[in-house]
Amino acid sequence: MIDTTSAPLTGPQGPKPRKPFSRRNIFLYGTLITIALFYALPLYVMFVTSLKGMPEIRLGNVFSPPLEVTFQPWVKAWSEACTGLTCNGLSTGFWNSVQITIPSVILSIIIASVNGYALSNWKFKGADAFFTILIFGAFIPYQVMLYPIVIMLREVGLYGSLGGLVLVHTVFGMPILTLLFRNYFTSLPEELFKAARVDGAGFWAIYAKVMVPMSLPIFTVAVILQVTGIWNDFLFGVVYTSPDNYPMTVSLNNIVNSTQGVKEYNVNMAATILTGLVPLSIYFVSGRLFVRGIAAGAVKG
Amino acid sequence: MSSTRPNQLFRNISSKIAAIPMIVTALFVFVGGTIWTVVYSFTNSGLLPRLQWVGLDQYERLWATRKWLISIENLAIYGLCMLVLVFVIGFILAALIDQKIRFEDTIRTVILYPYALSFVVTGLVWQWMLNPEFGVQKVVRGWGWESFTFDPLYSADIAIYGVLIAGIWQGSGLVMVLMLAGLRGIDQDVWKASRVDGIPTWKAYIFVIIPMMRPVFVTTLVIVVTGIVKIYDLIVAQTGGGPGISTEVPAKYVYDMMFQANNLGQGFAASTMMLVTVALIVIPWAILEFGGSKHRD
Fold this sequence. Notes:
The structure holds 2 protein chains of 2 kinds. Chain A is mostly helical.
């Protein structure tokens, strides 16, 4: 009996076990679940609304699940919903967005990765000064540069076209992406770069054969960042393209907020989900990489 | 001497070629574009930009326009509430998630997903949720509370708070993620030490942990504030600036003036004011963050 005090380390080890239903746990999980429900609610409401018919919406409750599931609103939102006089639905906007997003993502990532590589391994005199301007440029409200860019695009004949918008996205993606790539390339071991130099490889050979193959994760982060950012853009789409070329976000807004006709809330919500579907799928599939993209952007920028 | 000069220019030439897009963007778009807009804000440009100086006339007119004053007031209300609430909610959520809970990934995923959605989608969902005929108000009345009134988007006095709800829903996940990263970066020994000293948890957060997270708070602040100043699509989608002009914001004022009212000069003056607002926040931050580090090197 007395022996237990002389050997105090033989007792139970590790942290004190907690009861699963302690007051602390009930409070903690209760709060978290309530908050999570608040965040999830709009997505749920969008879905159930888009699956109901209009009579059911008028009678019922936004939270109740649909009694009769109909996919008609989705079909209508995709191919028939009207903006003003044209009734092509969201499909035109979707394809415009695809045509804008793909080249913008590729172009901006190529330019920014080469640039970040130049800034980390081949620094020349004055490079840091331009980089500093670039980073500060990321803080300038877009409204300040809207009109000068209109003039520039008009000068080169790209104002109103998809190509012009691709260029705008490339320019405004440059600060964050360059920062992302520069920081990543700087963190790679310098011996690799030196060994390639000794073997006689030049600027482009080292980029293509050493740097890119080693940097696939950061390229993935950049793609996620750019696809969601460009897909979700509204301001540049509305300013730099003509109505035929409007991206999906702009056509969505025009469909839902058009003042003509009876409001069809189920079609509107189906259209809203359709527009959110691309970034949402990327988010749910990529998980931690998405978070990493945010964190990378947040570190200094 | 003269024979070495071309060498200097062509040394490292591939790198310089690779940096051309950056140099063009930095000089022509960011610096050039900004100077251009500021210069033209002192002219009476209408449908097209023209160099006819009018001094500070555009600014005087701007500050005498009711729509601009309402825009500024809205931005102040929205910005201040957004800032406080997003930080409080984001930090509390991060602190709760940091308690070694189960299903951490699931909860984090649910709280962050709105951030992946565009402001247009956010605005339209909340327009629907806050619709008094069909949304939350109707549901609560259906539960038996007949006099329940909650229609922020339809009463001019409180419409901006309806936008605020949507803004918080969309943006607080981001703050949560950043704060969580900050909390995870804190050495576990700090917690042990505070426990040994018998400091209650809430006190440890306020007096020990938060001061240690100063850099995270500062960066988050800069991100959130620059985001607030830019707010545009959310308003366009959710309220269109209405009812009346009760939810107008500066970024929308700029767009309306430039592309709808054919009053470029006003647009330039208003966007210059936006630039000044951001500069007042970013420049002190930059001096604090980067100016100090030079002394340490």
